[in-house]
Amino acid sequence: MSRKNWRIFVISVVMVIVLFILGLVLRMNYEERELEKGSCDISGVVEKVTRHHTEESTHRVNHRLVRRPASTSYKVYYYYIVDGDTLRGNVSTTRPMLRRVGAGARIPVTYALSNPEIHRAHTDRMTVKGGHYVFGR
Q1: What gap in Å lies between CA 71 and CA 31, rounded to an integer?
Q2: pLDDT for residue 99 is more than 70
């Protein structure tokens, strides 16, 4: 591959990456605007919670050893019902309290009135009272 062709290839790859990131940013901006226009808070139902644990590790960066601490993340799969339609979603979090959450627990969900598929689940608003998860705040 000639030097000129290599340069064109690298520029093309960079442009594709930039366009992909731009698309993600525009999508997130659109969803936030839709939620700001009008939204509704409802109670979703947890279907399952998966746990991913990463052990402590050490790796080398520019002649230095960098330690990455152990961490555990949780992925919560849930559904919510709007006008008879069942919609599903998932959210990742590192909140340690979610290790006790199981199927059937309630999770607060905010969805856009204009498009119920645009939603946000709020694991930070889940608290425990009497052994059951309820909405906080």
Answers
A1: 30
A2: no
Cα-Cα end-to-end distance for the chain: 61
- What mean pLDDT comes out for the span 50-56? 85
DSSP 8-state class, residue 122: -
Residue 18 gets the label, from left (phi > 0), alpha (psi -120 to 50) or beta, of alpha
Query: Residue 122's pLDDT is what?
Result: 83
- Distance (Å, rounded) from C-alpha 120 to C-alpha 100? 21
Q: Do residues 122 and 107 touch, judged by C-beta distance below 8 A?
A: yes
Q: Are 117 and 34 in contact (CB under 8 A)?
A: no
Mean pLDDT of all residues belonging to the chain: 83
CA angle 46, 127, 47 (to 5 degrees): 5
pTM of the model: 0.69
Please choose, from the candidates 103, 101, 104, the residue with its C-alpha nearest in 3D space to the C-alpha of residue 126.
101
Taking CA atoms, 113 is separated from 37, 44, 48, 78, 122, in Å, by 8, 16, 26, 19, 17
Question: Has residue 81 got a pLDDT over 60?
Answer: yes
